[in-house]
Amino acid sequence: MTTLSPEILDALEKQAIELPSWAFGNSGTRFKVFATPGTPRDPFEKIADAAQVHKHTGLAPTVALHIPWDVVDDYAALRRHAEDLGVALGTVNSNTFQDDDYKFGALTHEDDRIRRKAIDHHLACIDIMDQTGSRDLKIWLAEGSNYPGQNDMRARQDRLHDSLSTIYARLGENQRLVLEYKFFEPSFYHTDVPDWGTSYVQVAALGEKAKVCLDTGHHAPGTNIEFIVMQLLRLGKLGSFDFNSRFYADDDLIVGAADPFQLFRILVEVVRGGGLNNPDVAFMLDQCHNIEKKIPGQIRSVLNVQEMTARALLLDREALAQAQTANDVLAANAIFMDAFQVDVRPALAEWRVSRGLPADPMAEYAASGYQEQIEADRVGGVQAGWGA
Ligand code: PSV
Ligand code: MN
Ligand code: MN
C-alpha cells in the first residue's frame, strides 16, 4: 500500500471544499427536471444536507448560497443553523439570469434603469454577505447576444466595467468579488465574459479585492485548463474554482468523473503555483445531480478532489525538475504519469479512520439512515430546485 508522508497528510488535513447549496435541490436539463425523494424544501434543509457531507468526510466545512434561490427572512438564523450543524455559510452567488428584465443584459444593459436594478441586486447580495459572514461575492453573467450585429460588444464592455466598479466600491475591507467566465450559453454568438482573459481584464481594472473564478466546465473542448490555472496563479488573480466535469458542454457532472486525468493535471498546477490550502484560492463545487442521489453525489465529489490532490502531492517534483532540465522528455512524462497512477484510496481510508472519520464515507452515509429519514420527512411541500 502506498504510504502518504506526514507533509502530505498535513496538507490534506487542511483541505477545505465548499459545497453549492443548489446541488441539494432538484435540477435537470431543459428537457426534464426529475423530482428526487427527500429533496430539501428550503435553504435550512439544504444546509442540513450539506452538513452530512462534512460529517462523513471532514472535507466540506462551508456551503455557498445562491440569491434569490436561498433567500430567507433571517440570515443570522441561517448562519446559526449552519454553525449548529458544524458548517459555515460561504460564497454568495448573485443571479441575474432569471428575470424578464435581463433578457438583453443586466450589468451590460443599455437601459440605465435595468442596469441599476442589476447593480442593486449585487449590493443586496453584499448586504447578505455582511450578515452571513461570507467573504466572496461570485458573479456569473448570462449576458451576450445571439446574432452578429445585434449589439455593440465594445460598449457593453464599458458598461460592464462601470457596473462592476460600483459593486466593487461597496465591498467591505475583507470581502472580495470573483468574476466567473463561460464561453457560451445562454447566448450563442457572443458572451460578455467568455474567457479568463476578459475576466482578468475586468477584475484587474477594479483592484486587489477582485479575482477570477475558473469553472472547469466553462471552456471549449480541448482547452488546456491547467495552463489557465498556472497563468492565473502566476498573476495572483485566481480567486476560486467551480469544480465539475463535462463530456460535451456545461454538463455540471461529478468532478473527476469525466476526465480524472484532467483533474490531476489541474491539481498539479495548483500545488505548483502555491494554490493549495491558500486562503486566496477557494475550492468550490458547482454541480447538479440530475439523476443520482444528491448527498452521496456530493460525498463522491469531495472524495474525488481529495484523492486527486493526494496524487498531485505524490508527484516527485525534484526528479521531474531534473528530467525537465535535461530535456528528457520520456522520463519527465513517466514521472508525471507515475504519480497519476497511484491508488491512494487505501491510505486515505486508513488516515480517515485515524481522524475519527469513516473509512468509507459512501457506505457509512448509506448505512446512517439519514437518506430514508429525509425521504419520509419531506414528503409534500415544495421542493427547492435549481431556480426555486
Ligand atoms: C453558470 O453556468 C454557473 O456555472 C454559475 O456558476 C451559476 O451561478 C451556476 O452555474 C448555477 O448553477
Ligand atoms: Mn459555475
Ligand atoms: Mn456552469
Automatic annotation (TrEMBL):
Pfam families in the record: RhaA
GO MF entry, a single one: manganese ion binding
Annotated InterPro entries: L-rhamnose_isomerase, Rhamnose_iso-rel, Rhamnose_isomerase, Xyl_isomerase-like_sf
Gene3D superfamilies (UniProt xref): Divalent-metal-dependent TIM barrel enzymes
Record keyword Repeat present: no
Alphabetized UniProt keyword annotations: Cytoplasm, Isomerase, Manganese, Metal-binding, Rhamnose metabolism
GO biological process, one term: L-lyxose metabolic process
Database matches in NCBIfam families: RhaI_grampos
Designated name of the protein: L-rhamnose isomerase
Organism: Microbacterium protaetiae
